[in-house]
Amino acid sequence: MKEGVKDVNIPDLIKQLDILGDNGNLRNEEQVAIIQASTVLSLAEKWIQQIEGAEAALHQKMMELESDMEQFCKIKGYLEEELDYRKQALDQAYMRIQELEATLYNALQQETVIKFGELLSEKQQEELRTAVEKLRRQMLRKSREYDCQILQERMELLQQAHQRIRDLEDKTDIQKRQIKDLEEKEPSPMACQIPKTENKTLPQSSRHHVYIT
Q1: I want to staple 62 with a disulfide (CB 3.0 to 4.6 A). Which of 22, 46, 174, 175 is the partner?
Q2: Contacts of 202 (CB under 8 A, 6+ apart)
């Protein structure tokens, strides 16, 4: 506990001051001091309630931001998995094309290749090779274009998710700093002379910090 600070129940303390103020034996300046003290405590109680309400709202907002950030982290994980899958599919497609190319090339090398019952001439074989090569390149180009488009779209979504996560982290840090500032705030000490009263045991519930000079 800090020096000069006591844990008190503000509503009970106000009630005790009201009871003390009803004492007809008090001097005018003592009654004025009691009224001033009651006013200060009432304002302090309202101020503390406002701080507690603001702190609760900030805690709730921070929980929502953390939930959003967790959700975007999951989305990020899904996108990364899909990117890996697309890359693997692209590699497999390229390997399959190479296998087909090798199969066609071997077939063209056979001396028994027949077209409509006749052997192909060297010119016809060359034309067939050219056509096969052209078709292979077209298939490969279209496959790469499609996969590149998909990868580009997924990369853009992933970048957006990364940016959203960074924004949420910044907002969460701001909320944490605001909560820390509220927790460190205490009512400013207000000078008011309160007549000495008999020591009474105060309830332990609804305890707040208040400066008493």
Answers
A1: 175
A2: 8, 9, 12, 13
